[in-house]
Amino acid sequence: MQIKDHVGIVTGGASGLGEATVRRLVAQGGKAVIADMNAQRGEALAKELGDAARFVRCDVGVDTDAVAVVQAAQEAFGRIDILVNCAGIGTPAKAVGKDGPLPLAQFEKIIKVNLVGSFNLIRVAAAAMQGQQPNDLGERGVIINTASVAAYDGQIGQPAYAASKAGVVGMTLPLAREFARFGIRVVTIAPGLFLTPLLESLPKEAQDSLGVQVPFPPRLGKPDEFAQMVTSIVDNVMLNGETIRLDGAIRMAPK
Ligand SMILES: NC(=O)c1ccc[n+]([C@@H]2O[C@H](COP(=O)([O-])OP(=O)(O)OC[C@H]3O[C@@H](n4cnc5c(N)ncnc54)[C@H](O)[C@@H]3O)[C@@H](O)[C@H]2O)c1
């Protein structure tokens, strides 16, 4: 599917990997709906990008918010062709910390945003895509999720984050199989270490010491390299039902 004249919803689109994705979709002639909790950053980005972008405040963990986002995309741009799930949180916490067992609500919160939140948007967006006319290749839509290398090499302190991302990897194939008859593809990206606001807040030396752990290229990933992966997936109709590691060959150590 081409990006030009097509409409993408990007959750977490106000920052980091999502923001880079929004910028690339618009740069390639597409339209973007920025669906994020952060209204200040989201509205500023939409304003900067003009007619090609809209901001919709949303909590991906809330069922009615997903409906509102898809409706807003249809009202603003008439259709929805691409969903990119980037919204995510990752507060580290051990199962048993200094104060005893991790409060269960903290584990549930991460699962709710990263896993349930991704599924929430998928179920509503896919229903809308199913009602659209297919293109010449038979495609009605492309859904792209963001997992993490933590789905495979989760570190100490990441049981909730790793489980949430492994859940995203796990639902990729069954969803691709379910939506195949509608020509809707589902692909997941598992990024390694990318220089987004979280890591940008670290001193340069700390950034560099993380970067050299990457075999090649020995540096942190640039958000636009993630966005480039998104547009490659949209472009290539044979990519489906798979999770792609985008990580410079890093394998995370236990801690
Ligand atoms: N940066 C990395 O190195 C890296 C590596 C692997 C995976 N990831 C994943 O990539 C995704 C994006 O990460 P990032 O580094 O760009 O983070 P980021 O913090 O820069 O951006 C995340 C965005 O998600 C939004 N968000 C958080 N909770 C939300 C909710 N409930 N509803 C709607 N929006 C919500 C935030 O407001 C923010 O704008 C996350 O899923 C993260 O787990 C990032």
UniProtKB/TrEMBL annotation:
Keywords per UniProt: Oxidoreductase
GO molecular function, one term: oxidoreductase activity
SUPFAM superfamilies: NAD(P)-binding Rossmann-fold domains
PANTHER family xrefs: 17-BETA-HYDROXYSTEROID DEHYDROGENASE 14-RELATED, SHORT-CHAIN DEHYDROGENASE/REDUCTASE
Gene3D superfamilies cross-referenced by the UniProt entry: NAD(P)-binding Rossmann-like Domain
A matching Pfam family: adh_short
Name of the protein: NAD(P)-dependent dehydrogenase (Short-subunit alcohol dehydrogenase family)
Record carries keyword Oxidoreductase: yes
Organism of origin: Sinimarinibacterium flocculans
Family: Belongs to the short-chain dehydrogenases/reductases (SDR) family.
